[in-house]
Design brief:
Layout: H1 2-20, H2 29-58, H3 63-127, H4 131-137, H5 141-216, H6 221-237, E1 239-240, E2 249-250, H7 251-265, H8 269-286, E3 288-291, E4 299-301, E5 307-308, H9 318-328, E6 337-338, H10 358-372, H11 381-397, H12 402-413, H13 421-442
Antiparallel strand pairs: 1-2, 3-4, 3-6, 4-5
Domain Transglycosylase SLT: 259-396
Organism: Candidatus Zambryskibacteria bacterium RIFCSPHIGHO2_02_38_10.5
Protein name: Transglycosylase SLT domain-containing protein
């Protein structure tokens, strides 16, 4: 009986060994061949357009030639983007395969534990017999020792198998993390290429416009320069809305604040402005409130009079809020904060343009004082810009990559993850804001 059982367990072990050895099968050859062909073609396209670009640059002597240069840049960028899309597709498939591998390994581990449980149960049964009984149960003493040796061998083999599977699972998880990092890098390259392509397309339209007016003599070059300066002045003067009851400021001023914050943190000025714009949009929807009870955190809507029992989380945010307002000489019960977002059931209490809750602001208080040279106010626009940039840098936006910025935006909002609706809205706003900044930079308009 025991020999049959041990033989069964040994066969189970062999089956598991076969599974664990095949979990890292290669990707389908046809798919790999297709990817290799696409990548090879994009390499040729990139080289082709780089050659055209180099030769065209050498002969640039007219507006028409400059337009040809821009066209070569666009075509090269498109080939570059296609190349990166192929790489991203391959990485995405690799990640799916790794997830399947992890699931298979986990199933193998569960099955292995069940097999081990069976062996342990049989071991307990064997322990219940005395040595004479075990010997008498076998035809001869050699059968007894053979069964015992088989049991010990299978037990050791199963233990080795578990160790191998655990090691493979750890390796697979590490590979998945590595692939996610690589996927972020590829997505960042793609995003950067798309941004550059849009810049080139904008410049091409501008060049086509200049060619047209040069032919028709509609305007002189001096008039064109004047038009550009007028548009730049319009961009600088348009109002940049702020959340938290703060008055709107000119875009040119907001840009100066964002650039100053960027110089300290490395966070893109356009990204800081996009975050604050998104916060302003949200703030206009939730309304303005006052704290009315410093014990419970209850508050009231400034305009409607609606009472909010969950305006601030007490004492977590109420205590630091009282400390912040006291340092600044403000009346805590007459200082505007955000109302709660009704459908979510969460708390309000966010302060100023950057919409920090009091407990989070306290984390940055000392750092802000070191940089600004004074006690920072959440309701002061310049201070809020710096605080927002510091926080975004801590959340991973300082490198300026697309993946880092959208992930930081999601964490800033509180949802987390690598993407979210808030983050996507922020990135769309950043694109629009960056276009205005690029216009100011390209045409040399003073920021002051």
């Amino acid at each position: 009986m025991y020999k049959r059982f041990f033989l069964l367990i040994f066969l189970i072990f062999c089956l598991f060994s076969g599974v664990s050895g095949s979990v890292f099968a290669l990707t389908e050859e046809e798919q790999e061949a297709e990817w290799r062909a696409e990548l090879a073609q994009t390499e040729l396209d990139i080289a082709k357009w780089q050659g055209i670009l180099d030769s065209t640059k050498a002969n640039t002597a007219s507006l028409k030639q400059e337009a040809a240069v821009l066209n070569a840049k666009i075509q090269k960028a498109k080939a570059f983007i296609k190349q990166k899309n192929v790489a991203i597709s391959k990485l995405e498939k690799d990640i799916v395969q790794k997830n399947v591998h992890i699931k298979t390994l986990e199933e193998d581990i569960r099955d292995g534990h069940e097999s081990l449980s069976q062996i342990l149960r049989k071991t307990n049964e064997l322990d219940e017999f005395s040595l004479p009984e075990v010997i008498l149960a076998n035809k001869d003493i050699s059968d007894f020792w053979s069964d015992l040796d088989t049991f010990q061998q299978v037990n050791r083999s199963l233990e080795d198998m578990f160790n191998q599977i655990r090691a493979m699972k750890d390796l697979t998880l590490k590979e998945k993390v590595a692939l996610d990092v690589q996927k972020d890098k590829e997505a960042d390259i793609k995003a950067a290429a798309q941004i550059e392509q849009k810049k080139v397309e904008v410049n091409e339209k501008e060049k086509e416009y200049l060619i047209k007016i040069n032919k028709t003599q509609e305007k002189t070059y001096t008039q064109v320069i004047a038009d550009r300066q007028a548009k730049a002045a319009e961009i600088r003067a348009k109002l940049f809305k702020l959340a938290g009851g703060s008055a709107a400021i000119p875009f040119g001023t907001a840009l100066i604040y964002a650039q100053s914050a960027s110089s300290q943190t490395g966070v893109s000025p356009a990204f800081v402005l996009a975050i604050l714009t998104q916060e302003s949009n949200l703030g206009s929807n939730v309304g303005k409130c006052y704290l009315t009870d410093a014990v419970t955190g209850t508050g009231v809507n400034v305009n409607s009079g609606k009472v909010w029992s969950n305006l601030m989380k007490a004492p977590r945010d109420v205590v630091p809020f009282l400390d912040i307002t006291n340092k600044l000489g403000f009346n805590a019960l007459n200082t505007v904060v955000s109302c709660p977002i009704a459908p979510t059931g969460g708390y309000g209490g966010a302060m100023g343009p950057a919409q920090f809750i009091a407990s989070t602001w306290k984390i940055f208080e000392d750092r802000l004082r070191d940089v600004l040279g004074h006690d920072a106010s959440p309701w002061n626009a310049q201070d809020a810009f710096m605080a927002s940039a510091m926080y975004l840098d801590d959340l991973g936006a300082g490198k300026g990559t697309y993946s880092g910025e959208i992930r930081a935006a999601c964490r800033y909002y509180g949802s987390g993850g690598s993407t979210c609706s808030y983050g996507r809205s922020v990135m769309k706003l950043k694109e629009s804001i960056q276009a205005d900044i690029d216009y100011l930079i390209q045409y040399g308009v003073s920021r002051r």
